[in-house]
Amino acid sequence: MMFREDCENRYVRLKDLLEGIAVQDAPALERMTTAVTAVREELQELRALVSGSGFADAAEEIWFFKTMKPQFYALLIYEVSRYNLEQQQPAATREGCAIIICRSWRRSVVFSGSMLFCMPISARG
Prior knowledge:
Blueprint: H1 2-22, H2 28-53, H3 58-88, H4 94-116
Helix pairs in contact: 1-2, 1-3, 2-3
């Protein structure tokens, strides 16, 4: 039970650290690099913890690999994906971004409207 609590506490601390990094007024690349480094360091510490002490039983091992480890990797994937989204944002003023968003929204409405005719009548809302 102690191992589980330790893992959960590490996860909460890491999430708090990542939230602090996210609100920093730093360039996106620097924020992403700091966040990814923090997650990788925590994964290395988890690896050392697991290899050093092992698991109490098979249920704890299953819990770790099925629940806890994927949560840490999800944070890593989230940080990289967030950086990629920030880099795809157009370099424009606030008003320019609003215009771009409205145009893409209109295109999606036109597309979804045309898809309405392809759907069976029973599936239409």
